[in-house]
Amino acid sequence: MQIDKLRGEHLDQLFEAILSLENVEECYRFFDDIATISEIQSLTQRLQVAKMLREGYTYNTIVKESSASTTTISRVKRCLDYGNDGYQMVLDRTQTKEKDQE
Question: What is each CA distance from 91 to 8, 14, 38, 42, in whole angstroms?
Answer without folding.
Answer: 26, 21, 22, 17
